[in-house]
Amino acid sequence: MRSTRESPRDLGGRVIGIDTNIIVRLLTRDDQKQFDAAVALFKSSSVDAPLFVNPIVIAETVWVLERVYKTDRASARTQVAGLLDTVEIAVPDVLRMGNWADWLSSPHPDFSDILISEINRANGCEKTMTFDRKAANSVSGMELLA
Fold it and tell me: What does the pLDDT read at residue 39?
């Protein structure tokens, strides 16, 4: 990812967080006025004053694209990854991991489970326990509890 390497905290308050609906408008263009406003927001940002996207926003965006807009899984994930791979976006370290391609190609349908596992791993967890059989079988780092 080309996203800024500095932590949002290190930028001294020059970071603006964005909500899911901003990304959805940029990707779907389903409301011209909101799309134009979102584009203007992106144009006003820079490497020194980026927009911050947290993992919850990523998970929600993928969910909205797949469930509401009926975008297929691979396309939804590729669209989100493409947007995040810009200098205007600051992301947490967990979203800068080298396994982004694994996230995009994961057969597991629930992108939030993938993020949960990766965030836990990035914070020192050796595994993530779950009751979700599908997640335990298809998400790296997840194990079935019972």
Answer: 93
**Cα distance between residue 94 and residue 73, in whole Å:** 21
Q: Per residue in 43-83, pLDDT tens? A: 999 888 889 888 888 888 999 999 999 999 889 988 988 88
How is the chain classified by DSSP, letter by letter?
--SB-S-GGGGTT--EE--HHHHHHHHH--SHHHHHHHHHHHHH--SSSPEE--HHHHHHHHHIIIIIS---HHHHHHHHHHHHSSTTEE--GGGG-TTHHHHHH---S-HHHHHHHHHHHHTT-S-EEES-HHHHHHSTTEEE--
Residue 107: partners with Cβ closer than 8 Å, 6 or more residues away: 138
* Whole-number Å distance between alpha carbons of 111 and 126: 20
